[in-house]
């Protein structure tokens, strides 16, 4: 866009609508970086003023254009007054003066922000509906394609103002710690505190720890064990997102399983989480992480390869030779109806998972140890005892005996 085009377009708009410096400059926001819209607006008005005054002196009939500009430009009002034409100042058609000192709205948020120890923030504002409507009316009428939205300018300017008062903070529109919400209709501000997400891995050494809910002889939960993470950040509550799950009576050994602790409503976004190590659970925290990582973890659980160890009791005596029949199950696809022990809304959902490899060792005539390497999501206990025929094929079916799983451990999540 040539400078003449900018001036022509600007004059066209000004003839019809009185616009403040910001609202006029914003129509050309995409032209020229590092200049605030108000500065752009002032520059355009100054050049229009110089051109029109020059034309006037040459005797051209530009009084109407000068009058239109004078409504929103003091030097032009003064010039016209000097030649006997009095023009009243008018308020901006789009913002009605809102943008003149929109920075003052930041004041309401500052005391709220001082209560939170955060690193990054974003600004969100509620702008009067009619202001947005009038803006889109002007943009459409003059086919403005070089502009910025008023919402964008307001959020940016309030953000800048906040930065002036807050040292060491930064604006992060994508993943802010806190979102400053300002309602320009009421002038009220609020601060939304986004959760802190901490990644890590855990090992479960006890057979009486469940992931989230207490039942039966479960003595504690992973969620309870990790409550101390919430306290590090002064959070209101916390949720543990785990990549897959194991039964409460199954141990989680080896290199552990990945999880993310989500701390809601924190008052601090800095802090280091110490590892946890007791008789039940080991938790090794890693880094701050993101919501996308939580989604990835949950998705990954479906495709992860898991290695299990089970200690199995057989109703009838087995020989080492008989156990060798289990080789047939390697590389098999297993079809499972939702186990009877799991109460679900759709109790007859079908699940299909791969069993890659099996290894076994007879411990005594009624007890054997079984290693199962399989796709994530396989109900391993059911794969062993068959769940009354609801899982096919199963170890029980192949060995033609009733089986009971005495112990189950997750040895590896690959
Ligand atoms: Zn305005």
Automatic annotation (TrEMBL):
A Pfam cross-reference name: Pus10_C
Superkingdom of the organism of origin: Archaea
Catalytic class of the enzyme: isomerase
A single GO molecular function term of this UniProt record: tRNA pseudouridine(55) synthase activity
InterPro entries: PsdUridine_synth_cat_dom_sf, Pus10, Pus10-like, Pus10-like_C, Pus10_THUMP_arc, THUMP_dom
The reaction(s) this protein catalyses: uridine(55) in tRNA = pseudouridine(55) in tRNA; uridine(54) in tRNA = pseudouridine(54) in tRNA
Active site: 247 (nucleophile)
EC identifiers of the protein: 5.4.99.25
Residues where substrate binds: 308, 379
Key words of the record: Isomerase, RNA-binding, tRNA processing
SUPFAM superfamilies named among the record's database cross-references: Pseudouridine synthase (SSF55120)
PROSITE patterns in the record: THUMP
GO biological process: tRNA pseudouridine synthesis
Limits of the THUMP domain: 70-195
Matches recorded under NCBIfam families: pseudo_Pus10arc
Family: Belongs to the pseudouridine synthase Pus10 family.
Known function: Responsible for synthesis of pseudouridine from uracil-54 and uracil-55 in the psi GC loop of transfer RNAs.
Protein name, UniProt field: tRNA pseudouridine synthase Pus10
Species this protein is from: Pyrobaculum ferrireducens
